[in-house]
Design a protein that fits this description.
The protein is an alpha/beta fold. It is about 45% helix and about 20% strand. Strands 7-6-5-8-9-10 form a six-stranded parallel beta sheet, sandwiched between helices. It has a four-stranded antiparallel beta sheet with strand order 11-14-12-13. A two-stranded antiparallel ribbon has the order 1-2. The two termini are about 20 Å apart.
């Protein structure tokens, strides 16, 4: 379904007003909007003309009550709906006057609304957007903020949605209006602004976010964004992408929980694919969350209590790590023999929503 972004202007008469949010909505083209308005205006004009012409003998034209022609009726309808009202043609019968009060007057209001529809629509839209923004800001909590919506940001958003995250719980921050427009078309809330700025991140309610994805294109930008995000959201999980592996430690010191060296990881995957096509294909399968295998973290089920990781391996889920009391025990340590309440698993499993 096509979507339209709802925009709040970046400038406001009230400098204390909340900055812009962009929500996904249905989109109608300007030509369609104009066409609908014209049809409504023409419909009101035709309806009024027919009503007047049906009671043409109940109108007088400068004192002449011999009946109105169709052209006279059209003329009366036009000057009445536009509130010009020259007064040369007037109703004289009770039925015609009642028709003017209860039928033609509402049609006049409808006609005027269509004529000034642009202004009314702008005012109504701004009010609606302001109310929607305030409601969103008061209710949003434990959401995910993605800073940057290029290739990495889009892939991260798609991976979250494939894993079951609601699109309403994802907020995209980007400096490029086009990128935010694309994010809203994809169903996410968008904020236009520089992720290095504290006020922009506050627009995305980052202080209440559960996860933050830093997917900017430059390493120095990623470092500054991470520093600001960590200061505003001390408890959020921050994952950042970095182009140069040598900047990984700097990002960790800036507050990132996990750092993904994109260029080096891509090079390693390419080398692995050259050495072993099967291994490369498996890694590619794991990276594509929409098909085949997937890596995920989940809570253990009631049936899995007391079982060993090897038992789950036999059931078709490869256990990579068991997280107990915040500590990850990898499969190669053999530190966990039995699963206990509260344990979480990192497993490789078949994607149940394969497309």
């Amino acid at each position: 379904m096509p979507r339209r972004r709802t925009r709040l202007g970046s400038s406001s008469a009230d400098p204390s007003a909340p900055p812009p949010l962009n929500f996904p909505e249905r989109r109608f083209s300007p030509i369609r909007n104009i066409g609908v308005r014209l049809l409504i205006a023409v419909g009101a004009l035709v309806a009024t003309t027919l009503i007047v012409y049906a009671e043409r003998d109940c109108y007088q034209d400068r004192g002449d009550q011999s009946g109105l022609s169709l052209l006279d009726s059209l003329y009366y309808a036009a000057v009445t709906l536009s509130t010009t009202g020259y007064g040369d043609i007037t109703p004289v019968c009770d039925s015609a006057r009642l028709a003017n009060v209860f039928v033609i007057t509402p049609l006049r209001f409808l006609f005027l609304i269509v004529l000034v529809g642009t202004t009314i629509e702008v005012l109504t839209q701004r009010t609606r957007e302001q109310m929607r923004s305030n409601r969103w800001r008061s209710n949003v909590n434990d959401h995910t903020v993605i800073i940057g919506y290029g290739v990495k940001g889009r892939a991260a958003a798609r991976s979250l949605v494939d894993a079951g995250t609601s699109r309403n719980d994802v907020v995209v921050v980007a400096t490029d209006r086009t990128a935010v427009d694309e994010a809203t078309r994809d169903g996410f809330v968008g904020v236009v602004g520089d992720g290095r700025r504290e006020d922009v991140l506050r627009d995305a309610a980052i202080e209440r976010a559960k996860r933050v994805v830093v997917a900017t294109d430059e390493d120095d930008t990623s470092i500054l964004v991470t520093l600001t995000a960590r200061r505003l959201s001390p408890h959020a999980t921050i994952v950042a992408a970095v182009r140069e592996a040598q900047n990984t430690e700097i990002l960790r010191q800036s507050g990132a929980n996990n750092v993904i060296p994109t260029a080096e990881s891509a090079g390693r995957l390419m080398g692995l694919s050259l050495l072993s096509a099967t291994a490369g294909e498996l890694m590619e399968d794991l990276l594509d969350s929409g098909r085949g295998l997937e890596v995920m973290e989940r809570e253990i089920t009631r049936e899995e209590l007391g079982q060993s990781p090897a038992d789950l391996d036999a059931q078709g889920q490869i256990v990579l790590a068991v997280i107990r009391k915040g500590v990850a025990h990898r499969f190669d340590t053999n530190a966990i023999n039995r699963l206990e309440p509260g344990d979480r698993l990192v497993v490789i499993r078949h994607n149940p929503v394969e497309r």
